[in-house]
Amino acid sequence: MPSGCPDFLETLRLSRRSLLRVGAAGLAGLTLPDVLRASDRGEPRRAPARNVIFLHQFGGPSHIDTFDLKPDAPQGIRGEFSPIPSAVPGVPVSEHLPRFAAVLDKVAQVRSVHHRMKNHNSATYYSLTGHAPPLDDIRLRDTLELFPAYGSVVAKLRPSDDPAIPSFVSYPHVLRDGSVTPGQHASFLGKPYDPFFIGQDPNDPGFRLPELNLPDTMPLGRLDDRRGLLELIDRQTELLEYDATARGIDDFYGRALSMLASPRVKRAFDLGEEPDALRDSYGRTTYGQGCLLARRLVEAGVRFVTVYFSRSIGGQGSQGWDTHQDNFNDLKNRLLPITDQTVPTLIQDLDARGLLDETLIVWMGEFGRGPKIGDRDGKGRNHWPSCYTVLFAGGGTTGGAVYGSSDRIGAYPDTDPAPLERVAATIFHALGLDPETEVRDRLNRPLSIAAGRPITELFS
């Protein structure tokens, strides 16, 4: 190597594993520049996670009343719930999460996540994309200048192996606080990377996907008629409004036709194939059956599944976890029982099927709740983005790990502050995608898929 050249390994930033891959690629007829160009295209490195189940808790769960209790804090802050031991010594949880306590050794916590957005639309956009919005305002609207959802990025850079299997599926709610919350779609990546959205309740006995079932009056020959197929899907779909022209007719037609013809896709959405006992274990709720469906989808090859817990599940919370009023009763009687039944079952089910190591579960809201009790009715907690907890399970993360901590009242990070951008980077890192991988916006500007560093301390 010529004198004065930068160190070769440092310049290329290649790990030993990367060098081994380069060597193998060379034997296969690829040169080192070929491999580096593949890296520039965002092709994934080898990583444990193949899939992500993203459980978004719209409204903002109270970290102080769930996983980061402060029993020694002053009255008016510590809340009504007592901590109980968990499977991780010295790491208690709320008394209303006993099943979660039993599986906490499979869960990694980040207790120091923070940002500055206090409104639902802006904070939720931030949590769904990992990029800060241009303003913190309830009037934030979806535009093609905003960033795409995590699942859309994954659909572009790491699509499903089978073209008939959608890469990104989301359901069963459209998040909104006045206007529809941005960050639920592909934005400037283009319509082909939008989620396959299901607007039906998986807990409904008649749950099915109409667009995957041909009516008796539709002869198979009509599938050769592109216009007829698009009209069929237009009539039957209960998805978000799809604009076939904007999406690109060829992409839309090709994906629809592939799914219509795929028994694998139809089976994935047939919850009736599951034993009643397992369905009962998940919980006969929208959220419970939605998480069971998520397991079936990743089993079928879907890369990214987003399950929204939102307002139409019912209860006193005005928007899912938005407990401005009657915080403790709503948590105790509605939110925590559903969560404690469903999420531990999902973790155990994936583990029993050998899918947990390759499936990253992310459980988070757009922010936490404020330390001070007394919002609105004297019993609520207000929005609190300054410090809250995000959970990871599977996908190569270390069960039982706790990264970062909050201060004595749960108000601000005390150790290892984790900006929300690091959560996004961690999701991509688990999938083997370099957070610095670039995509192009409508003006052809290169933009990194994540603006932070992954929390590598969570991984074995």
TrEMBL record:
Transmembrane segments: none annotated. InterPro entries: Alkaline_phosphatase_core_sf, DUF1501, TAT_signal. Pfam families: DUF1501. This is DUF1501 domain-containing protein. It comes from Tautonia sociabilis. The lineage of its organism: Bacteria, Pseudomonadati, Planctomycetota, Planctomycetia, Isosphaerales.
